[in-house]
Design goal:
Elements: H1 7-20, H2 24-27, E1 41-46, H3 50-60, E2 66-72, E3 82-87, H4 94-108, E4 115-121, H5 124-127, H6 137-150, H7 154-162, H8 171-176, E5 180-186, H9 209-218, H10 225-233, E6 250-255, H11 257-270, E7 274-285, H12 286-303, E8 311-320, H13 331-343, E9 349-355, E10 367-370, H14 374-380, H15 385-390, H16 394-400, E11 404-405, E12 416-422
Parallel strand pairs: 1-2, 1-4, 2-3, 4-5, 5-6, 7-8
Antiparallel strand pairs: 8-12, 9-10, 9-12, 10-11
């Protein structure tokens, strides 16, 4: 095969293909009810893609509807009949708390002949913050900050969040009983488990308070005193599988990371590049995952395995970062910087890593681009890849060489997207 003319352009094409197949306007209409309910259609939702999902519902549904959706600041989409509230992510704020309280009251007011349509996507856990009785927003903020810094996996984070919440872990659907509840989910978690996505507000919770206490102990988190007391009491468990209040609840997975990787693979083939999908549920420390990816990329160059160059290694999932330095940078930028350090400037290897919601962690970039000469260009600009990696300052590294990937909110969220192009 001949070498692609512009590796940067090709990598961006693959990312765009992954995003396109997960756009709410494309997927939501296929999963809407075929007939209107006898009562009201009530739309409730939370997540980075929830406002775009709400707009897709409005565009496709001709009958009356009403509702409330909360999304991240900057991710709102104008709607005429569904109220859109913007709130903070990843550390919750009062706007998210107040929206969650109102949402729970709306659910409690649903009647047996109503249909509650819930729109759930990644980010919903932080956006749908309603502290359990006896806890405060400040308690939840402190726990969230500790979870983000300790390197906990998303299922561990959401296990703890569920057990400190009045609305997550199936409680929203339980509140809406006896109304019918239908949930449309865009997955942003490894394994696509609806009980983990946005902490499963409409899904039975198989985890326990004891599991939540184990997360606290495993990462050495010192929670606020009220949180410690609440978990120790263990008196207010989440709804479990088999709970009759959730027996009629339906959940539809409408977009998922694997489908986005397959769309990127098709785009690669069209460009004459062999795609290799390594997995849609890859987890672990970003820098450790990068070392493995570097080894596979070098295997391609040296031995033509698992595919001959030109090929692109595609993967999804959600890595983590244990903060030790004082720099800036989300998990995707850190992955790419660690990849560059591990490759030592090996020729012909390029990379793109980005969060499909358009925001890498809490920064303003989706991710970044790595080129074979990234480390050399950074050195010329007075930066050290190894030093920036040690300081968790991948953002500063890629900013210095002009290779941050800035897309703005994409209005979808199917987890991280990584493409390592070997020429």
């Amino acid at each position: 095969m001949s070498r692609p003319a512009d590796p940067r352009h090709l990598l961006r094409q693959l990312f765009d293909a992954a995003l396109a197949v997960a756009q709410p306007a494309k997927v939501v209409p296929h999963f809407l009810p075929k007939a209107p309910p006898r009562g009201r259609l009530i739309v409730l939702g939370a997540g980075k893609a929830s406002a775009a999902m709400a707009a897709a519902v409005e565009a496709a549904w001709s009958g009356p509807l009403e509702g409330l959706v909360v999304t991240r600041y900057g991710h709102g989409v104008p709607c005429r009949r569904i109220e859109i509230v913007e709130a903070a992510h990843p550390v919750p704020d009062a706007a998210g708390r107040d929206a969650a309280r109102r949402m729970l009251e709306i659910a409690k007011g649903a009647r047996a002949d109503d249909l509650v349509l819930c729109l759930v996507s990644g980010g919903g856990s932080a956006l749908l913050t309603l502290p359990a009785a006896g806890l405060t927003l400040e308690d939840k903020q402190a726990v969230n900050k500790a979870l983000l810094a300790c390197g906990a996996a998303i299922d561990e984070m959401n296990c703890l969040r569920k057990h400190l919440s009045a609305i997550k872990g199936g409680r929203l659907a339980a509140a809406a009983h006896p109304a019918q509840v239908v949930t449309l989910v865009i997955s942003d978690v490894p394994g696509d488990d609806p009980a983990i996505i946005a902490s499963g507000p409409t899904v039975p919770d198989p985890t326990t308070v004891e599991d939540a206490r184990r997360v606290i102990a495993r990462y050495g988190i010192t929670p606020p005193a009220a949180v410690a007391r609440y978990l120790e009491s263990g008196h207010d468990e989440t709804p479990k599988p088999g709970d009759p209040r959730l027996a009629g609840s339906q959940v539809h997975l409408i977009a998922r990371p694997q489908a986005s990787l397959e769309a990127a693979a098709a785009a690669a083939r069209a460009a004459g590049v062999t795609p290799v999908i390594l997995g849609d549920a890859i987890e672990g420390e970003a820098r450790e995952v990068a070392k493995v990816m570097a080894g596979i990329a070098l295997q391609v160059r040296r031995h033509g395995q698992p595919a001959a160059a030109p090929c692109v290694l595609l993967s999804g999932g959600e890595t983590t970062v244990t903060l030790k330095g004082k720099g800036r940078g989300g998990r995707n930028a850190e992955f790419l910087l660690a990849l560059g350090v591990a490759l030592h400037g090996a020729p012909g290897i390029w990379g793109l890593a980005a969060d499909t919601d358009g925001i890498d962690g809490s920064e303003d970039n989706a991710g970044a681009l790595l080129t074979p000469d990234s480390l050399a260009r950074a050195h010329a600009a007075g930066r050290s890849g190894a030093a920036d990696l040690a300081d968790n300052d991948a953002y500063g590294f890629f900013q210095a060489i002009g290779d941050l990937l800035v897309t703005g909110p994409t209005l979808t969220n199917v987890n991280d997207f990584r493409a390592v192009l070997v020429l």
